Amino acid sequence: MTTTVKFDPWSAAFVAHPYDAYAELRAQGPATYFEATDQWLVPRYADVGALLRDRRLGRTYTHRFSHQEFGRPGPDPAHEPFHTLNDNGLLDLEAPDHTRIRRLVSKAFTPRMVESLRPTVRRLADELVDELLAAGGGDLIAAVAEPLPVAVIAEMLGIPESDRHLLRPWSADITGMFELNPTEETARRAVTASTEFSDYLRALIRDRRTAPGTDLISALIQAQEGSDALSEQEMVSTCVLLLNAGHEATVNTTGNGWWALFRNPAELARLRADVDGLLPTAVEELMRWDTPLQMFERWVLEDIEIGGVTVPRGAEVALLFGSANRDPDRFTAPDRLDLGRSDNPHITFGAGIHFCLGAPLARLELTESYGTLLRRAPGLHLVREPEWRPGYVIRGLEELLAEV
Q1: pTM reported for the whole predicted model
Q2: Which domain CATH number covers 386?
Q3: Per-residue pLDDT reduced to its tens digit, 358-367
């Protein structure tokens, strides 16, 4: 059952089903000002895709303007540890810094490295499903969706198993700052987590400098182009981004995807009947149908027009990925879950220079996770309807109880 609601990212009803509101926004126009967050909402696929590639917008503006020149207040000095960590990551940098760091990171985080993780991902997925089967079921979020990407990223970074329990709480506290109008308590937790995680990684980097291994941190230390190399802060921010961006998105794509399958039993039966043949397109469709990252924000560096609507320099646009991925001007029957959908250029991983560096790893994890559950728990079924977490930007379930 769905309810038509206005755009209200703090409403539980909206978070549970934002798609009717998105349809209203798309019909209303190409860009709508939303006073509550001082942003321009951009809901249509063509506009979102174009603006992701438009260099008149940026994830930051400080590479071109001071805060005063841009008409924006500077960050609260008390939040400095969070901003130092976040602002040195690829997701929040613009050229030339973004270009340089992405080139160096790409030397370490290669497609070959990602593919080499497949046996590890498969083993971890099997172990988690073993425990789920032995228990007769459980919460798919806590039992499979969360521990798998955390374990994979921890293996990739070379984090000792005894320390891995620290990663998920750090990630959750830091990403709380990506929600709209975060509270001071949210900021306090993010600052604490940023400090603790940064200190932990700095110690790990020092260890790898003296005793290199085959992990990604060792590869990041060794990544060079001429005399250029990553600074320690750039390495720390890169590692945190890999955890936060990759982990949060994969967790929510797994949980949201299984909830989508349970709500569409004919499609679930279709997938179970042809796991090998249908799984690649099914993973893409599940990412499109219930997008884990609903909104991606950009600063307007020069006056622009969006479909005839003028948006001035200094404004912020909110690119609505969830709406763009359901736009009927681009997708046939966009509200229908079609696991065999072949024409599916969803923008779940973004576009342009900030296209997700971890997309191959996310696809690998999702394919192995879904595939293992589909093959080894063919009778998996829902116990009760789940509830959504209160966050809107990074949108996921509290839990997803199922029996085998």
Answers
A1: 0.93
A2: 1.10.630.10
A3: 999 999 999 9
